[in-house]
User: Fold this.
Amino acid sequence: MTTDAAIRVQGLEKSYKELRVLRGVDFEVARGSIFALLGSNGAGKTTIVNILSTLLRPDAGTVTVDGFGVGAQAADVRESISLTGQFAAVDEILTGRENLVLVARLRHLKGAGQIADDLLARFQLTDAAGRRVATYSGGMRRRLDIAMSLIGNPPVIFLDEPTTGLDPESRLEVHNSVKQLARRGTTVLLTTQYLDEAEQLADRIAILHQGRIIANGTLAELKQLFPPAQVEYVEKQPSLEEVFLAITGHDGNGSNNGNDSGLATTPLTTKEPR
Assistant:
């Protein structure tokens, strides 16, 4: 574990009565990077995010965010983070600009109008600033939601499955916004069940399976875990999907020798504990 990590998690455990959701999770996230937590529904991704954002107490383990402990220094953690959940938390009656101004005023920031205008420009929403959010597409709503979460310039942002339910074009819009966050120095922890999303966005990827991190590394490092292709002329490079299925015990044909993670190329449907 390095000393300059924006997020550090060691020995994290959490149970809901008899159900053990997290069984000793360890990982860290470097400052200014995008870290993807990849796993099927029910793996415990949202539980981790809720603990990191002080919404849930862990049963065991230590967690620090921006140098603050989530237990003893919860108020400091909340000052350092912003959380965007699986559904856009925007007011559909208000315009895009009014949503941003409202949040800035609630946070007692000066120049709320200028803050709103700057974020609208940053997320390519200036032309829609005066329209009610009810008229926005899914991608526009999600971009506005992310823009709202950045008011106050938090150094760390959690994005919990930010593209769930979006069409491919809207997903691309959100992907571009996430990349822009990291370029500006924001640390992003992204949970997702989309393999291609983790592959395209993340500097590092951790695979969460049955309550444990079973692999953690760059895409290139994870590909090294996949057996080399036995071909005569061309070596096939594994996709992240193939790496994941190999690590979790799947054979790629719907069977996994009794170890069912449920991950597929389409969104998964098993209910995830909160």
Q: What stands out?
A: The longest strand covers residues 5-16. The two ends are 27 Å apart (CA to CA).
